[in-house]
Amino acid sequence: MAGKFELYTDKAGEWRFRLKASNGQVIATGEGYSSKAGALNGIESIKTNAPGAEVVEV
Length: 58
What we know:
Elements (H helix, E strand, L loop, with lengths): L3 E6 L5 E6 L5 E4 L6 H14 L9
Antiparallel strand pairs: 1-2, 2-3
């Protein structure tokens, strides 16, 4: 099974998402968004912009 994005609202009523690996471990979380559409755009941005992201030590 591939990983999955979970979309949810937090206690403050903001939309958030988390990316879970196939073993259920959370490997990334998104910021709070005021709308569901904003959170979905955040997910799409990760899918589009990060597949080949480099690792930079700072």
